[in-house]
Amino acid sequence: MLSLGAITAGCADRPQAPVPLDHADVLLRVDTKTVQALVPRHATLDSLLRDSRLSDTLVDATVRAARSVFDLRHLRADRPYRLVLSLDGLLREFEYQIDGDSFLRIVAHNPAEPSKLEAEVASYEKEKAIATVRGRIDAGHTSVIAAVEEAGETIQLAMTLADMFSGQIDFDSDLQQGDGFEVLFERLTREGQFAGYGAILGARFTAGGQVHQAYRWTDPVTGASAFYDQDGRSLKRFFLRTPLRFEPRITSTFSRSRLHPVFRTYRAHLGVDYGAPTGAPVVAVAAGTIVSAGWSGGGGNMVHMRHASGFETYYLHLSAFGAGIRSGVHVSQGQLIGRVGATGTATGPHLDYRLKKDGVFVNPLSEHNRMPPGEPIPVRTLPAFHLVRERMWQELSATVEAEGPRQKPGDSAVAQR
What we know:
The protein is α+β, with helices and mostly antiparallel strands. It has helices spanning 4-11, 45-51, 56-67, 144-150, 155-164, 364-369, 382-399, 412-415; strands at residues 32-38, 80-86, 91-97, 102-108, 117-123, 127-136, 180-190, 193-207, 210-218, 225-228, 249-252, 255-259, 266-269, 272-275, 281-283, 288-295, 301-306, 311-321, 330-331, 336-340, 350-357, 360-362. The protein is 17% helix and 35% strand.
């Protein structure tokens, strides 16, 4: 008979088999439940909370907290929200996505005081990366929007690019097949997903055989940022090329004798007609003061503006006026003043844009072409601007595949207008 010690000694050199556990895993009790959904149509914060069976006291407290930081009238259907509740029906946290940049958050920090809530509007954390895109105008992509989308970006970038060059390029008449653009910009992401665009840093745009350049420059004294050409001249000119924000289509030009489409008689047409859908935004081509905004008979709803240097502009056949647009109001360049319509004597939605200089109507297209370049960067900061320009030029050239030899910024062929 073997002793216990002998048995132990005999087993010491052999690996021990694991002893099976005859019980289930320990499960931790979940003490909250989470509701994630989209805001239903016609819902309010009050109704969302009541549908989740919160008490009247908690609903009232949550609504009061939210109102202290956010206008609840701006709660929108189909926006995501998240509601975290304790198992005994108390609110732990509520989040609602206001837009792509910010969200409403309401938190109960102390379970002993469930009605004591803290609310804030917070910004989503976003990652920023420098990116480039190249687009080309050809038979398949005859507009900047189509070319940008084909390159994998969105209409938002196309609109910003068009706004940048609105004083230099007429996107209706200047573009030709073979034209194109290159853009250096900031792309934003949130949790790995596209979340919009930051600033455009630099761009080159070939239109009608001319190469236009734009470089973002921040004044070291004022901190204001704007776009300048390769010579340091502001791209913001006295007049925008057109009063429509993107790619207007000219349907009738300035003429002293035109066959009227309604009355079928020859008469002067003292402006330029732009075909555009009803509701398209109409902006002021230059800073100025509203002379009148109202009904003008055959011109329908019209805005009349007075600008510096003896200029006046007229915007006819509008379907609506911009907010606050009335006689005596000062507006800035690019500000919304109305929307395209077909009021008055019109056969369809369009904008009749007219320009008067020293009391005489003139052709807007030719007059805009004669507008001088914008104000230059002060001489004292030009060397710093040139360094920024060279760095952006190198980044564009290094990260975008070249289609042929390019000239450096400032070279005479590139600098032509």
